[in-house]
Write a structure and sequence with these properties.
11 helices; 354 residues; globular
């Protein structure tokens, strides 16, 4: 199977991964959500944050770097503001708890802000901002990570790729859903390229000597590059301050990498914000205004060969429709590793191809 990519049924993939995490000792409900968050990233086409990360996540569950039975607690509270200690939980578990708290505060106060300390990698940021959209709210989600981006000309990392997401209800087929990291490409895309034996664009990363490279493994051993040079670095600093500095959590060089420190909690911080849209505007009016915005984008004349402009989140919505029908493409090496883990840990669910 190694090297042969196959399309896997999303429901079978979700069941398999959820059962695997349960076998690792996680509570079934939290294991299922962890699996859902991972497979949803694949459905959106964000394969860098999908099942390719499962072996690493699972290893960290087994080692205790991810607390399989966390006791997430509130350690500071004010009107519309909450700080949570995630107790080393899986980032997906802590991220959902934080956004649910922000949503609850927004219902009471119009806006809710929840910071998180002592967490781990939370996957795709849009998973959490979209939880707010499901409740007719605007959602913002962000997180910090260990520095892995080099400043222009530098030979050492200075900031994490510190992703953030903003999601807004449109009351149409898909929400506005911006999800971006501060690096030109996420580290997961390098790992995906390495797994597929592909080269990468020269503007994605530099090697250990600060030189551009198209070798994903050399890039993984080196440093990512920021979007927009110093402008991107400024955004990375801001997310780190909001996720780590003001929450009392770890930040900058204090943080740990789940790849370089596989047996240690990452100490990741998150910040979730929910804003109750109905306090400002009725859903029908919001739908009309967002439809106008979308129509305006699509009316912009484009150069020959260029497609029409779309909302962030629209390509992901189309990709999800395709992949629910055609299956999720998984690299053969990843499938082989997953099946080996399944056999070793008694997983009965099967990865079904389409």
């Amino acid at each position: 199977m190694s090297g042969v990519e196959k399309n896997i049924r999303p429901d079978s993939l979700r069941a398999f991964v959820g059962e695997l995490f349960s076998a690792g000792g996680m509570l079934p409900g939290e294991a299922d959500w962890f699996a859902e968050s991972i497979v949803q990233a694949n459905l959106w086409g964000i394969d860098s944050h999908g099942v390719i990360r499962v072996p690493t996540y699972f290893s960290r569950v087994l080692s205790g770097a991810i607390n399989r039975r966390p006791s997430i607690r509130t350690y500071r509270k004010a009107p519309a503001l909450t700080l949570l200690d995630a107790d080393g939980a899986a980032g997906a578990v802590a991220g959902r708890a934080a956004m649910e708290q922000a949503i609850a505060d927004a219902r009471a106060h119009g806006v809710g802000v929840c910071g998180v300390t002592n967490s781990n990698h939370f996957g795709a940021a849009a998973l959490y901002s979209r939880l707010a959209v499901e409740q007719d709210m605007v959602g913002l989600a962000m997180t910090n990570v260990k520095p892995l981006i080099a400043a222009p000309g530098a030979k050492a990392p200075v900031a994490g790729n510190n992703p953030f997401s903003i999601a807004v209800p449109t009351y149409c087929a898909f929400p506005f859903s911006l999800d971006m990291s501060i690096s030109v490409a996420a580290g997961g895309k390098l790992r995906l390229a390495a797994a597929r034996g592909e080269r990468i664009p020269l503007d994605w990363a530099v090697d250990q000597d600060g030189q551009p490279t198209d070798d994903p493994q050399a890039a993984l051993n080196g440093f990512l590059l920021p979007i927009g040079g110093y402008k991107g670095l400024g955004l990375a600093y801001a997310v780190d301050i909001l996720s780590g500095v003001i929450t009392g959590g770890l930040f900058a060089d204090q943080m740990r990498s789940m790849y370089h420190d596989p047996d240690l909690p990452s100490g990741t911080g998150h910040l979730m914000i929910a804003m109750d849209l109905k306090a400002w505007i009725a859903p029908g009016e919001m739908k009309r205004r967002m439809e106008h915005y979308h129509s305006f984008l699509q009316s912009i004349p484009m150069a020959e060969g260029a497609g029409p402009l779309v909302f962030p989140g629209e390509p992901e919505a189309r990709q999800e429709l395709r992949r629910r029908k055609e299956g999720i493409p998984i690299p053969g090496s990843t499938l082989e590793t997953l099946e080996q883990l399944g056999v070793r840990h008694g997983v009965r669910s099967r990865l079904e191809t389409i």
